[in-house]
Design goal:
By secondary structure, the chain is α+β, with helices and mostly antiparallel strands. The longest helix is centred in the last third of the chain and has 17 residues, at 84-100. It is 34% helix and 32% strand. Strands 2-3-1-4 form a four-stranded antiparallel β-sheet, covered by helices on one side. The protein is built from three helices and four strands; from the N terminus they run H-E-H-E-E-H-E.
Length: 122
Amino acid sequence: MTRDYEKFPEDDNGNLLWQMQEDGDDLEEIHEIEFSMYFKTQQLAEKCAIHLLLEEQKISLYLDEEIQPNEWVITAYVNLMPEHEDITDLEQWFTKIAEQFEGEYDGWGCTAYVFDIDDEDE
């Protein structure tokens, strides 16, 4: 299949989306996309978490003890069709929010297909 550079631009997000499609992922289905942010202290992470909850975001918060020094991680879970423009916009939004609370945006990932809006039985 030939890569459509309008749909999959030559950047990190375009490359990842192209790889997802090449691996057989149906990008026309809604996915749960995970956006992660790191914080040095629990207090900063909790303040950011409250802000995200007030923005009606689904999140998780935990201490990552596998890295040194330990950091607090917030993951926001957003259901959407994985399109370059939407993901790039959300990355910019989460980057801005992380910086407001002295954190750092770390990237996004997608582990599973969420649901097919055409299949009511699932």
